[in-house]
Structure formats: structure tokens, C-alpha cells
Design a protein that fits this description.
The complex is a heterodimer of chains A (372) and B (75). With 372 residues, chain A is an alpha/beta fold. Chain A is built from 16 helices and eleven strands. The model of chain B has no long low-confidence stretch (mean pLDDT 95). The chains are: A alpha/beta (372), B alpha+beta (75).
Chain lengths: 372, 75
């Protein structure tokens, strides 16, 4: 596939890794946080972690929307299905995420709840058109990559007067989460691999504050393995030179200002939410969006008077520490025993992009060999 | 979640396009793009084209890989 295969060449990957080895300072560690679950996945799937010298460590960030969604939001969605009899539309990743009381959307569906897995918000609109007598709610999650398509769906619903369609908005924002991790300082971070597709929307300038305020270099990196390895080299060079600026490796898709049309649409439909709870990070101010009052008719939280539901963390699960970059997944007692991708306890094991699922799928044999 | 795949635009109909994804044809919204032409490669995410792929920038990145490879060969 064009723009995929040429960024996956093994010989080039090994050559780039040798250049990194030649340039690193063996006297120090390089702790690099990949913010996105997509990068975590690439690092394990393509064996990048094995190509890197030992003093380059990857710290896994919270950029997995499924992983950071608190269980209470899923419970609230299940209530909509069971008490309001809505058709709930959701991306497949959310189906198996554990909610409170050992429940999940998948279990609610098995009990007879009308929950549909969709590929695009436009599929939810089609369902609303086809079922005018039913309320159709789109359970929207995701970072800035996924927010503009939700905004577009709301605009279409408004234009076509699709009055039985609404959105349960759980969209979150990348720079505030990044700033939070850097402020908290739990995980010492020398450099950040910045998001690929979030950045196509918000642009590379959006991270300038992170670099300036915390003196941490950031390189926006594509998701293909050569993109990741080249970005690591760019970070190593910045760290060695003692500079901290935003650099863009993924120039074929990311500009300084991002996708203006998508940003305008996003701001037209959404406004900043005063605060939002993130699984693992707690309640963060100004870190998510909500539907503007002009579009209140399409806001499921308002339409159904949805309430916040508090749920306790899962006993023994260290997802919160994993999401803050403080622990590796294999340091969790539940990892690979009580918690597996087939029967996940924590959210980081559910999504294939979660750090625990990446470790389980591609990394656990490696750790076992290393300790043997 | 934020994965997006590159696909080639083969047909345009107003705010939507048919893209070719390694032989698979799929309808995609182009609502988020200002300009799109047949033959362009776009990044597809949840049924929307997020951005055009800039072929010149892609070529530059590949050239950089070659330069780094040459550096490695000399070392």
C-alpha cells in the first residue's frame, strides 16, 4: 500500500537504529513518552523496542480514549439503553470496557439492549433516519482526531432536522492531558513522541506551550515504524543538544496550524467543558469538550437529564499508574492472569492500543525471556 | 482509535468521495477538506477524510531515510 509499505522497510529500520546507537550518550537514560496508544501499538508490533539501545525507554502515555474513559460514563450509557430504551451507537472498542458492577456494553447488549457497533458517526445518522420512532444516541469518544466527524454529524442532523438523534459527548483534548502529565511530574520524561492524527487537526503549533513551559522536546511522529524510529532520533538529537522545541517528522500530513476547516467546525459545535474525569488521571479542568447550547437539542446529556455516576477503581488494577507512565503493565498483579484481552479487568487491556494489551500481545514473552 | 489509513480518491460526488484502499472501494466524507482531487491520497478515519497526504513532503521524508542509511553505511 502506498504511503504504508515504504515506511515499514526492515533494512532502513535497522540502519536508522544503528544511527541512533551511534549518537546516544551511553552515560544517560532517554525516557521518551509516546502519548498515543497508536504509537505504543507500533512500538511493540514492529519490534521497535528491540531495535533500541537499553538506555532508550518508552513510557506509555494516556492517549487511548477507551482507556481513559471512566467506568461511570459507560454505566450512564447502559442506563440510557435500559431505562430510556434508546438505540445506542458506539465504536467497537467500547463494547468490552468494564463498567461498574462487572457490567459492560457487551453484557447489556446480551441482556437485550439495543446497542449497535458503528464505523462512522454517519452510520448513527442513518440509523436515526431509518428509525424515526426511536431515539438514537451516538456514544462519542475520542481525541481531536475523532471530534470533527462528530461535529459534522451534529451539523448534518441540524440541517436535516433529524430530531431523534443525539450525542453523548465524551471527547477529550490532547494538550491539556499532556500538560497534566508534565505538571504532575510522576513520570520523569526527557522527550515526547507527539500524536500523528490528532496533530493533522490541531497542528504542530498547539504543543508550543508544552515545550516552552516544561523544557521538554516534542516530535510529532507518524504511526509507521520508520516514522517512529526517525522521530526517536530527532528526540535524541534535541536532548543531546539541550534544546526543547516542537519538531514535525510527520510533515506529509501535519502542518503548523492543522486543518482549519475541521477546527472551525469543531469550535462551532463544541465548547470547552469546565472539567472532565479521566480514568487514571482524575478530574482535569478544561480537558474535554461539550456540545454548545446552540446545539443543545442534540446533547444526550441534556435531552435525557443524564447524571454523573461515580464508580470505584477495579481492585488490584494499576491502569491509573500505567496511564500516568509510572508503571509498566507487567508490574500489575492482574496482568496476564486475572486480566487478559479475552477477559479484561482494566481498560488498558481492552483496547488493542492500550499499553497492557500491547504488552500482552507482543511483549510478554520477551519479558519472560529477559528474566529467565 | 486515532488510526487513519491512506487511500486514493477515485470518484468525487459533492461532499463525499469513493476511495480505493488497496483494491477496496469505500465511500468517505470529504466535508473536512477544502480541496480534494481525483488521484489525491487522503487519510481516512471513521468515514471522514482528515487530511490530504502531501506527496512532496512524503518524498522528502523518504530521501531523509536514504541519507541516514548512507550515513550508517559510511560509519
Amino acid at each position: 500500500m502506498k504511503y504504508v509499505d515504504e515506511f515499514r522497510d526492515g533494512d532502513t529500520a535497522r540502519a536508522l537504529a544503528r544511527v541512533i546507537r551511534a549518537e546516544i550518550n551511553p552515560e544517560r537514560n532517554y525516557r521518551l513518552m509516546e502519548f498515543c496508544g497508536g504509537h505504543t501499538h507500533a512500538i511493540f508490533r514492529f519490534g521497535i523496542v528491540d531495535l533500541m539501545p537499553d538506555n532508550i525507554r518508552f513510557i506509555h502515555g494516556p492517549g487511548c480514549p477507551v482507556c481513559v474513559l471512566p467506568a461511570g460514563r459507560i454505566e450512564a450509557a447502559i442506563r440510557l439503553v435500559e431505562e430510556e430504551d434508546v438505540i445506542l451507537c458506539t465504536y467497537a472498542d467500547l463494547m468490552r470496557v468494564p463498567a461498574g458492577k462487572k457490567d459492560s456494553l457487551q453484557k447489556a447488549k446480551a441482556r437485550g439492549g439495543d446497542i449497535r457497533m458503528i464505523y462512522s458517526p454517519t452510520d448513527a445518522l442513518s440509523l436515526a433516519r431509518e428509525n424515526p420512532q426511536r431515539e438514537v444516541v451516538f456514544f462519542a469518544i475520542g481525541f481531536e482526531t475523532t471530534t470533527p466527524p462528530t461535529a459534522a454529524a451534529i451539523k448534518i442532523a441540524e440541517a436535516e432536522e433529524i430530531s431523534n438523534f443525539s450525542v453523548f459527548c465524551n471527547h477529550v483534548e490532547t494538550p491539556p492531558a499532556m500538560m497534566h502529565i508534565l505538571t504532575a511530574g510522576d513520570a520523569k520524561i526527557d522527550g515526547i513522541l507527539g500524536p500523528s492524527h490528532v496533530s493533522t487537526i490541531i497542528g504542530s503549533n498547539a504543543y508550543a506551550d508544552c515545550c516552552d513551559k516544561y523544557r521538554v522536546p516534542l516530535v510529532i511522529a507518524g504511526f509507521e515504524p520508520l516514522d517512529v524510529i526517525q522521530s526517536v532520533l530527532m528526540l535524541v538529537r534535541q536532548i543531546n543538544a539541550g534544546v526543547a522545541r516542537v519538531e514535525n517528522q510527520y510533515t506529509r500530513a501535519v502542518s503548523e496550524t492543522g486543518n482549519e476547516k475541521a477546527k472551525v467546525l469543531m469550535h462551532e459545535v463544541f465548547e470547552q467543558r469546565p472539567q472532565f474525569e479521566w480514568r487514571g488521571l482524575g478530574v482535569l479542568p478544561n480537558s474535554a469538550v461539550q456540545i454548545r447550547s446552540e446545539f443543545a437539542d442534540f446533547d444526550a446529556e441534556k435531552r435525557f437529564g443524564m447524571k454523573e455516576i461515580a464508580t470505584a477503581d477495579i481492585k488490584g488494577c494499576i491502569c491509573p499508574a500505567v496511564l500516568r507512565g509510572m508503571n509498566n503493565p507487567d508490574e500489575c498483579k492482574l496482568f496476564g492472569t486475572a486480566c487478559t484481552p479475552e477477559d479484561p479487568k482494566g481498560a488498558c487491556m481492552v483496547s488493542s492500543e492500550g499499553a497492557c494489551a500491547a504488552y500482552y500481545s507482543y511483549g510478554r514473552y520477551r519479558s519472560a525471556e529477559a528474566t529467565a | 482509535m486515532c488510526l487513519a489509513v491512506p487511500a486514493r480518491v477515485v470518484e468525487l460526488n459533492g461532499d463525499s468521495a469513493i476511495v480505493d484502499l488497496d483494491g477496496i472501494r469505500k465511500e468517505t466524507s470529504t466535508l473536512l477538506l477544502d480541496e480534494v482531487a481525483i488521484g489525491d491520497y487522503v487519510l481516512i478515519h471513521v468515514g471522514y477524510a482528515l487530511e490530504r497526504i502531501d506527496p512532496l513532503e512524503a518524498a522528502k521524508t523518504l530521501k531523509l531515510f536514504d541519507e541516514l542509511k548512507a550515513m550508517d553505511a559510511e560509519a
